[in-house]
Design goal:
alpha+beta, 4-stranded antiparallel sheet
Length: 246
């Protein structure tokens, strides 16, 4: 029994921090209000940092866009739960849409973080694109215009990896070392048109020459951060309960 407890404790110690998601409302399940389709009104604390407005979708009538069958964007089920969001990666000229949120805690300097989110292309648009990324900043970033932010995301779908899939949720993930103090997460296409690759796709329900993607299940977790005493005590208690029959 002692060996089992020690082994289980080591497993817990090594995985507690990695299991903690620093993103509030990561799959847009916390619905607070309805105002057209805007994410910042329908699924706070997510908000819109530019003049362009990302959208909110839910299976519940009266909340955002219809799920799973939306006449404007197309058919899609949530990856998790009952809701997701959507945004343009290309919308007329250089226009982009972004989702931004304040994390539960600031990132720690020189620590390694794992970032992941899942996207799916809306089928009612002619374009598919690459270059969707996640940018971490120590201050809130906003701008009046809806053009691309002039920042390099720490995590990004590689150049040339155009995402066509309209049926499945495609993960975008990666790791990076934090500078320390990063408190805000912004997701979208940070590249201008000349640095973004697009491809035309066949669709029977054409709306415009734009690229639009749904997003769900956003997570940010530390892979190298030390575990706090309270976390160890809590998980240790669970382990002892599981092995108390020995």
């Amino acid at each position: 029994m002692r060996f089992l407890l020690v082994f289980a404790f080591l497993l817990v110690f090594g995985n507690v921090q990695a299991q903690q998601n620093l993103v509030p409302n990561p799959s847009f399940e916390d619905t607070t209000n309805w105002n057209n389709w805007y994410v910042q009104n329908g699924s706070t604390p997510w908000f819109n940092p530019t003049s362009a407005s990302p959208d909110y979708y839910s299976i519940y009538p009266g909340y955002g866009g219809l799920v799973p069958n939306n006449s404007n964007q197309g058919y899609q089920l949530p990856k998790t739960g009952n809701a997701f969001a959507g945004f343009y990666t290309y919308l007329g000229g250089e226009t982009r849409e972004y989702l931004e949120i304040e994390l539960f805690d600031s990132l720690k300097a020189n620590q390694t973080y794992f970032v992941e989110f899942s996207i799916s292309r809306a089928e009612h648009y002619r374009l598919a694109s690459d270059r969707i990324g996640a940018y971490f900043s120590d201050t809130l970033i906003t701008q009046i215009s809806g053009v691309a932010f002039p920042y390099i995301p720490q995590i990004e779908n590689p150049s040339g990896n155009i995402i066509y899939d309209t049926l499945n949720w495609v993960p975008i993930n990666g790791t990076f070392n934090a500078n320390g103090g990063e408190k805000y997460l912004t997701i979208g296409n940070f590249r201008n048109n000349s640095n973004t690759q697009y491809d035309s796709v066949f669709t029977t329900a054409v709306t415009s020459n734009w690229a639009y993607y749904y997003i769900d299940d956003i997570s940010v977790s530390c892979l190298s951060c030390p575990v706090s005493i309270s976390e160890i005590q809590n998980e240790n208690s669970i382990v002892f309960q599981k092995f108390s029959y020995c």
